[in-house]
Amino acid sequence: MANIKDVARMAGVSITTVSRVLNGYPYVAKDKQEKIMAVIKELNYSVNGNAVKLIKGKTNTIGVIVPYNNNSCYDELINGILKKAHELHYQVLLLPSYYENVIESSYLTLLKKKMIDGILLTSHTLHPEQILALSEWGKIVCCEACPVELVSSVFPDRFAAYIEVFTYLKNKGYKRIHFTSGRDFQSSPSTRLRIQAYQETIAEAYEGQFFDQCFDYQDGKRVGDLMFRDSIVPDAIFTNGDEVAAGIIASAKMHGYNYPQDFEIIGEENTPLSEILGFPSVDYHQTAIGEQAVSLLLSDEYARIQIRHKLNFRARTEASVLS
Amino acid sequence: MANIKDVARMAGVSITTVSRVLNGYPYVAKDKQEKIMAVIKELNYSVNGNAVKLIKGKTNTIGVIVPYNNNSCYDELINGILKKAHELHYQVLLLPSYYENVIESSYLTLLKKKMIDGILLTSHTLHPEQILALSEWGKIVCCEACPVELVSSVFPDRFAAYIEVFTYLKNKGYKRIHFTSGRDFQSSPSTRLRIQAYQETIAEAYEGQFFDQCFDYQDGKRVGDLMFRDSIVPDAIFTNGDEVAAGIIASAKMHGYNYPQDFEIIGEENTPLSEILGFPSVDYHQTAIGEQAVSLLLSDEYARIQIRHKLNFRARTEASVLS
DNA sequence: CTGAAAGCGCTAACAA
DNA sequence: TTGTTAGCGCTTTCAG
Question: Is B217 on the interface with A (CB under 8 A)?
Answer without folding.
Answer: yes
